[in-house]
Design a protein that fits this description.
The chain has one domain. The protein contains three helices and no strands.
Length: about 60
């Protein structure tokens, strides 16, 4: 004879485990601190300013745009 299992409890236990796994994946993907987000934004801003500062103007070349 096998072990008696309460199906309602088993279903709830399985649902909780699946929710926890989804939460773990989301923490890995979206779980960045405020400092990390601000650092990345500042880094992107610096890169954009660097590229804008090194852009060649078409008027300076004597060629039309």
């Amino acid at each position: 004879m096998g072990e008696v299992v309460n199906l309602r409890r088993a279903r709830k236990r399985k649902a909780r485990a699946e929710k926890e796994q989804a939460a773990e994946r989301n923490r890995a993907v979206y779980g960045r601190t405020k400092a990390e987000r601000e650092r990345d934004e500042a880094e992107a801003g610096r890169a954009l300013r660097f590229l804008d500062g090194h852009r060649r103007d078409s008027e300076a070349d004597g060629r039309p745009e």
